[in-house]
Automatic annotation (TrEMBL):
Signal peptide: none annotated. Residues 3-98 form the Gamma-glutamylcyclotransferase AIG2-like domain. It holds the Pfam family GGACT. It comes from Calcidiscus leptoporus. This is Gamma-glutamylcyclotransferase AIG2-like domain-containing protein.
Length: 106
């Protein structure tokens, strides 16, 4: 995956194949346990399945996969590929949104 700053206070998780010019990395995040009603609300919030698609992904050190929202919106991906805005920078350290934001705040 590639983690990209949306420029709006949250990251885009993208398939590496969608952004071949950017270096892929493992993502660092939190696992949350939610019920079906909350998951349905998250799907609506994230624009699943048109803007983001909820996909099962493997988790290091875990036997079971987890759901993750991956950016699939063609126009958003094209804007990132075209680098139309400096806001679409890769998160550094790669895949670590929290450290990236803490570094920006410092």
């Amino acid at each position: 995956f590639v983690l990209v700053d949306s420029g709006s206070g949250y990251p885009y998780a993208c398939h590496a194949a969608a952004l071949p010019e950017r270096a892929p990395s493992q993502l660092i995040g939190e696992l949350l346990v939610v019920n079906a009603a909350v998951l349905s609300g998250l799907d609506e919030l994230e624009g699943h399945p048109t803007y983001y698609r909820r996909e099962l992904v493997g988790i290091c050190g875990e036997d079971e996969p987890a759901w993750m929202y991956v950016l699939t919106d063609a126009s958003a991906l094209e804007a990132i590929r075209a680098n139309q805005s400096a806001r679409h920078q890769c998160v550094n350290p790669p895949g670590d949104w929290r450290s990236f934001r803490l570094h920006q705040a410092a």
